[in-house]
Write a structure and sequence with these properties.
846 residues; five-stranded parallel sheet; 61% helix
């Protein structure tokens, strides 16, 4: 049982992380138990605070106040038995335990004879990692629950958690805790016999074994653990139903990949271990339970293995790729003795070959494949067929999608829901909390994909999947500019992995090239709003490259237009111009007036950004004529906005105001919140240009609120940038720096070179204003070079304002020093310049 201590009338079980009094667990969290263990194991000795902090928060830096909270909890618990003074405080140093203590079990883990008479729980040779919340909840449920069923996919840790819960509550059951492993059974009729054998019943009558068991247990206070029930479910259900009916105090924990569906059953679904975010720092990664398990098991293979800055992200990626499934993590950790974590990560695409050599006692856990084979073989033919077909989905699916894509042959469309329910009940499919979406753990999906690849209908499944998501995207497109845009943006976000999969199939299957072009056109606004601009441009480029000399088609013209807008939004103005010109030429050859208007609006915005105001005005005016001829409110709105931008660049503020307001009125009539936010932002910049700071701030804040609701990352950056302008002019340098820094981080993530250049200039202005002239010069020089590279000059008003800020910075240095720093900045890469700008912000904020 591991190390246990008697502390007066209480018992401290170190492995189970529980303090027990009068047969019940004391309300003491795992961190407090860890602290108490350190103190008790060094009774009457001084223990410094750092030792206790390391024990309770391994690998984590925390304030000493957290330790004081745990000490207070321990003192309250001990006070119940008169031990309120058993912990002494040594001022500014640490603590000492001075109460009665005796060790019950040695480090060998051998169970005392009296305990052996009360349980047959197998001795475990590895530590229990994580699951503290689940363990606490199970212990909370047990006093009021006769049947608790732990469900979950294979390898998720059901058996280990049930075992740990039993260890922690052993003293609560007068007649002990008894464990029955049902995995070796093949006949449900043998379940009763297996329990009788585990209880060591003497000569039970062969004819009425169930009656004898019920009689034996009728007055006993006992916890029974029936492990691995799924393949003998009927036998388990009959046995447990009789026990619950005929006995008074017997309780059951069952582990199964599906529920028993008995009256009074409390089902506890067990999910994967909490996962890290691979981009986090090493300390944050180390806190995740999945990482803790991997590291602990890896150290058994390679004692010198440790989580470090150079391997933490690879370990985190392994945990994510393996879904936080404990068995999969243990199998991967077993490879640390012969492979680096980077090599393990690279080989995970062959996970069923790599992850072998698990438990020698359980053949079904010797390989990851055998684990899922065990579940798969329990399915009926329809469930096996749907299981394979569902592998076509990436990132989950809705019931509608499954019914449309996966029905046919042996499964009627109306029957898909019932077969799907069976897969959920068997823990091969996970239903999200709201019940609207379903998914497979990636390891399970990888297995299902093998089954799909071997199926005769695999190609037809891929085509139906493609067609479903093309239809979804085309249907979504008009809604992205109307009152339901938030819902449709989120729907596309939910299906993003499926959309990627459909696009990939379009591009590799040859016959789907025109469909791929149409899909790119339908998704381009979603990519812009949700911050997938570089990815979207890459999809467009790949789709357009399949048949570069193809005859003009509507699909190709629309994809060229999409590519132009995406290239504009990542600051590749040369590519944007080429795509614009191609789109316009193709629209003209097709005599597509709507396409011509879209292309001329896009070209007008581009020419304005490139400093050609006259060309921009002519293009937007041409678009407006077409839009009004077509009576198209969306094109009219866009044309008016473009002309408003032209008027603002020409300092014709009253004209710009009128154009923006007319465009805003149309946007409000259409309930197009994306464009309402854009126009509020434009009006905010116009107010700023006219010195109306209060009005400008209010308009930018209104725009920002809408963009946050829509999760429009690029739009959020625009609004933050406008707020930075206002704060800087009003002398609030801390706010200006914070706004521009947050916006710069977004622009960096989006790969938006135009936005990066603009925000480098704002950061340079902030640095100059707070006296950091050298850094201001460096960042200003970097911004100048970036603008030259992308061909996006400042407008007259922007240039004059920027020159004023840089002149103030130059005035605090001699010209030679300023010029030297400026040239140093011009030599920086974009990423280096961003790091300089963001690093300087810390000075502003504090």
């Amino acid at each position: 049982m591991g190390i246990q201590y008697h502390i007066g009338p209480m018992r401290l079980d170190v492995d189970a992380q529980v303090l027990i009094h009068d047969g019940a667990a004391v309300a003491l969290g795992p961190r407090a138990v860890a602290v108490l263990t350190v103190l008790v194991s060094h009774a009457n000795e001084f223990v410094d605070k750092s030792s206790m902090l390391d024990a309770a928060w391994p690998g984590v830096v925390v304030e000493e106040a957290n330790l004081a909270v745990q000490i207070s909890s321990i003192r309250r618990a001990l006070a119940r038995v008169g031990g309120g003074g058993w912990i002494e405080t040594l001022a500014r140093r640490g603590y000492r335990y001075t109460g009665p203590v005796s060790e019950v079990a040695g480090r060998s883990g051998a169970r005392a004879p009296a305990e052996r008479e009360r349980t047959n729980l197998p001795e475990l040779l590895t530590s229990f990692v994580g699951r503290q919340r689940e363990l606490a909840e199970i212990r909370e449920h047990l006093p009021t629950t006769r049947l608790l069923t732990l469900t979950g996919t294979g390898g998720i840790g059901k058996t280990r958690l049930a075992h740990q819960a039993a260890v922690a509550t052993l003293d609560a059951y007068r007649d002990g805790v008894w464990f029955v492993d049902l995995a070796p059974l093949t006949d449900p009729a043998l379940v009763t016999s297996a329990l009788a054998q585990a209880l060591q019943m003497k000569n039970p009558p062969a004819s009425s074994l169930l009656d004898a068991l019920c009689s034996h247990l009728r007055t006993r206070e006992m916890l029974l653990i029936l492990d691995n029930c799924e393949h003998v479910l009927d036998g388990c259900a009959r046995l447990i139903a009789a026990l619950l009916r005929e006995t008074t105090h017997a309780k059951v924990i069952a582990t199964s990949r599906e529920a028993l569906r008995l009256p009074g059953e409390r089902v506890y679904p067990l999910g994967p271990l909490p996962l890290p975010k691979p981009k986090s720092d090493t300390k944050t990664i180390a806190r995740a339970d999945a990482v803790r398990l991997f590291v602990e098991r890896a150290q058994r293979q390679s004692p010198r293995f440790d989580l470090k800055a150079d391997n933490a992200r690879a370990v985190a990626e392994i945990c994510v790729r393996l879904d936080g499934i404990p068995l999969a993590l243990e199998l991967a950790a077993a490879r640390v003795g012969v492979l680096s974590v980077e090599q393990i990560l690279r080989l995970l695409h062959q996970r069923f070959r790599l992850l072998t050599s698990g438990s020698r006692e359980l053949p079904r856990q010797q390989t990851l494949r055998a684990l899922i084979d065990w579940s798969y073989e329990l399915l009926d033919d329809a469930e096996k067929a749907l299981f394979a077909r569902l592998a076509v989905f990436a990132g989950g699916w809705t019931l509608d999608a499954a019914s449309e894509v996966c029905s046919g042959d042996s499964i009627a469309k109306e029957d898909v829901v019932y077969v799907l329910i069976g897969l959920v009940e068997r823990s091969l499919v996970v239903a999200d909390d709201d019940g609207d979406r379903y998914r497979m753990l990636e390891t399970v999906r990888e297995y299902a994909r093998e089954k799909l690849a071997a199926a005769s209908d695999a190609k037809a499944l891929r085509e139906r999947h493609r067609d479903f998501f093309v239809s979804l995207s085309v249907n979504a497109e008009p809604h992205l500019a109307g009152p339901q845009q938030a819902a449709w943006l989120q729907r596309l976000e939910n299906e993003h992995d499926n959309l990627r999969s459909a696009l990939e199939y379009c591009l590799v299957s040859g016959a789907g090239s025109r469909t791929g072009l149409r899909l790119c056109a339908a998704l381009h606004w979603f990519w812009i709003v949700r911050g997938y601009r570089a990815e979207g441009l890459d999809w467009c480029m790949r789709a357009l490259a399949i048949d570069p000399n193809d005859a003009p088609t509507q699909e190709r013209a629309m994809a060229l237009h999409a590519a132009a807008i995406l290239a504009y939004h990542v600051g590749d103005l040369a590519a944007a111009r080429a795509y614009d010109e191609g789109s316009l030429a193709m629209a003209r050859s097709l005599r597509d007036q709507e396409g011509i208007a879209r292309a001329t609006i896009s070209m007008g915005n581009l020419r304005l950004r490139q400093g050609d105001v006259t060309a921009a005005q002519a293009l937007c005016e041409e678009a407006l004529v077409i839009a009004r001829t077509l009576h198209d409110p969306w094109l009219t709105l866009q044309s008016l906005n473009g002309l408003g931008n032209v008027a603002a660049a020409m300092d014709r503020y009253s004209v710009a105001q009128s154009l923006y307001e007319e465009s805003l009125q149309i946007a409000r009539q259409r309930a197009d919140r994306v464009r309402i936010a854009i126009l509020l932002n434009n009006l905010g910049y116009l107010a700023f240009q006219q010195g109306e700071d209060s009005a400008s701030r209010e308009l930018h804040e209104q725009s920002l609120a809408i963009r946050r609701e829509l999760d429009d990352s690029g739009g959020i950056a625009y609004s933050l940038s406008g707020l930075a302008d206002v704060a800087l002019r009003q002398g609030d340098h801390a706010a200006a720096g914070a706004f521009s820094r947050d916006a710069l981080c977004i622009r960096r993530d989006l790969g938006d070179k135009m936005g990066i250049a603009e925000l480098l200039e704002k950061q340079a202005a902030v640095m100059g204003a707070i006296g950091n002239a050298l850094q201001a010069a460096r960042v200003g020089g970097a911004a100048e070079r970036l603008r030259e590279e992308i061909g996006s000059p400042l407008t007259t008003e922007e240039r004059l304002r920027h020159e004023r800020h840089m002149a103030a910075a130059r005035a605090s240095l001699d010209d030679a020093a300023f010029d030297r720093a400026w040239n140093e900045g011009r030599a920086l890469t974009v990423e280096q310049a961003i790091e300089v700008a963001l690093g300087a912000h810390s000075t502003v904020a504090h």
